[in-house]
Specification:
This protein has two domains: about 1-210, Nucleotidyltransferase, domain 5; about 220-295 and about 330-360, no CATH class. It is about 35% helix and about 25% strand. The protein contains twelve helices and 16 strands. The strands form four sheets. A six-stranded mixed β-sheet has the order 1-4-3-2-5-6. The protein has a five-stranded antiparallel β-sheet with strand order 7-8-11-10-9, with helices on one face. Strand 13 and strand 14 form a beta hairpin. It is elongated, with a radius of gyration of 25 Å.
Length: about 350
């Protein structure tokens, strides 16, 4: 068995990644507690496949320390696993991509089959765990990626992956390496794993979009991301539409705590959001000197078509049933005059409610 250690470059500062992980997953781990890990196996079933490589990436100051536990032969698997497990502690936090469904259960089953030290094996479940895949997939209403495989997210960020091997070719290459011990094959096997780990660190930048989701979609918007909306500027934009009609927009701008990795647009018929790396801009149409103020708990409201607004069910009980319908996320709003949004609190709640509407 081989244990190889090296330092690899990172586009994003490791300290920034650690801060983003803490904010996004509401944890208080130190940067050195995070252990990014990825495994390579000869198949998907732990019952008839083996783990031949475990790679880890640790955030150390402003460096990424890569350690790879590599099995020269199948007989090395137990030692490989116990060495990796021995690095985990009570304060460790495993960071992985879909490891909740594959990597961790696979290692647990292999540890049992190989009769690894029980105390070491227990560390897999005793320490905290963060699944990047689950969180990024929840941003689909904004990202609209074709799928949420790691390589797809890497391509979204233009991550320069060097490795070109897919899973089937990788397994075949490892089986060939076991017989030949070819050094070039070993280099390619290790490269695939190191690129996976480097890519995993880089795609953490996508978690910055969680500043929008965490604040806008939760019932209680007062959380670790609220700072992103504490300083909001407003202005009016006067323009003409494609038919030459004059239109007015209320523009709200704020800066994120964590920079967004890529500019994006999020549009609805009654407003849109433009996301820049260093700022968020919300554009809301002004109609008859008023703007829509959305309510998040739309299931507790009725929409009144004649008044073009929603009212709470406790009040709507006195409205004839023929003049009301159950509110939806698109019809659960009232109208307010922009000048009433004259306090930081009012602006904050207006902006987060509109984001909720756009991101549903």
């Amino acid at each position: 068995m081989k244990v190889l250690t090296s330092t690899i470059p990172a586009t994003a500062a490791p300290s920034q990644t650690a801060a983003l992980l803490c904010a996004c997953f509401h944890t208080a781990h130190a940067a050195g507690d995070f252990i990014f890990f990825d495994i390579e196996t000869t198949g998907l079933s732990a019952g008839n496949s083996m783990c031949w490589l475990i790679g880890t990436l640790v955030l150390q100051d402003d460096s990424l320390i890569l350690t790879q536990y590599f099995a020269d032969s199948p007989s090395d698997e137990k030692e490989l696993m116990e060495q990796f497990l021995g690095t985990l502690s009570a304060t460790s936090c495993l960071v992985h991509f879909n490891g909740t469904r594959f990597d961790i259960p696979f290692l647990q089953e292999r540890a049992a089959l190989l009769e690894c030290d029980a105390q070491l094996a227990a560390k897999l479940t005793d320490c905290d765990s963060i699944d990047i895949f689950k969180m990024i997939k929840s941003y689909d209403s904004l990202l609209h990626l074709t799928n949420y495989k790691q390589k797809t997210i890497e391509n979204f960020l233009n991550f320069p992956r060097t490795d070109k091997l897919d899973g089937k070719k990788l397994i075949a290459l490892y089986k060939s390496y076991v017989l030949s011990k070819d050094t070039d094959s070993e280099r390619l096997l290790l490269l695939h794993n190191s690129d996976d780990l480097a890519g995993l660190h880089e795609i953490c930048a996508v978690l910055a979009y969680g500043q929008l989701y965490d604040t806008a979609l939760k019932k209680d918007s007062v959380d670790s991301f609220k700072k992103v909306f504490e300083n909001i500027s407003t202005e009016f934009n006067y323009a003409s539409d494609y038919e030459g009609n004059e239109i007015t927009e209320l523009i709200l701008e704020t800066a994120p705590v964590f920079p967004f990795p890529k500019a994006l647009d999020c549009k609805q018929p009654d407003g849109y959001c433009k996301i820049f790396p260093d700022k968020l801009r919300l554009c809301v149409p002004v109609v008859n000197d008023r703007v829509k103020l959305f309510y998040k708990d739309y299931k507790n409201y009725y929409y009144l078509p004649e008044q073009n607004c929603a009212i709470h069910k406790s009040v709507a009980a006195y409205v004839d049933k023929s003049r009301r319908t159950a509110a939806t996320k698109n019809t659960c709003y009232t109208w307010v005059e922009p000048h009433t949004l004259n306090t930081p609190s009012a602006l904050y709640h207006f902006l987060t409610a509109y984001l909720w509407h756009l991101l549903q």
